[in-house]
Model the fold of this input.
Amino acid sequence: MRRVLNWQKSPPFPATRGLAACPDRKRGMMRLSPITLLFSIVAGALLSDAAAARSGPPHVPTGPASLVETSPSLAPFQHVRFCLRYPADCRSNRTEDDRIDLTRETSELLERVNRTVNATIIPAEKSSGGELQEVWAIAPYTGDCNDYAVTKRHELLRSGLPAKALRLAVVKTTSGSGHLVLFVATTKGDLVLDSLAETIVPWQSTNYQWIKIQSASDARVWHDVKVTGASASRSDR
Done:
């Protein structure tokens, strides 16, 4: 069975202040021992196969709500540093598809990566520090919402999914915390992979205020966004 994560422990790293504090994932989350983690990953892969066979791709509701890019925005400073550290994760290919064909197979892949990364990285609040020292890391032993999001994107890129369809997005939770999620564009609607949720949901089903998102054409460029349509009556208005 293919190993989803690189188990090499990343070096210690300080806080990420650029998005404000990530929400505390530790509350209500069970901390697993290494043995339990290994078992859960193996069992999860087997269970996801069975679940995919029963249900197929997740249902994505259609509706008038749209997430619209408005104007170019400054990239999060930590993402600029991330691209220097992991250049392969910031490459763009304009010939790629900008949407993933949401088949049973790709649905199972998304679910497995989301669940495995959420279970494997131990949630931790990063101590306060200057922005120049802050980093986002792929597959660290402990991390916050930024590390979960970039790790999921990295694993899906390694699995052959197009970079144009996998975009990091900055949102704000109902409590006002800055948060980073992975926005996945598919042929059946756009989905969110979230460190605060074990299930993948359509972006319209989140209760987030959407702030900015990676450009589909250039992974190093970011745009401000706004919600138009039905969902604009929620926190995005």
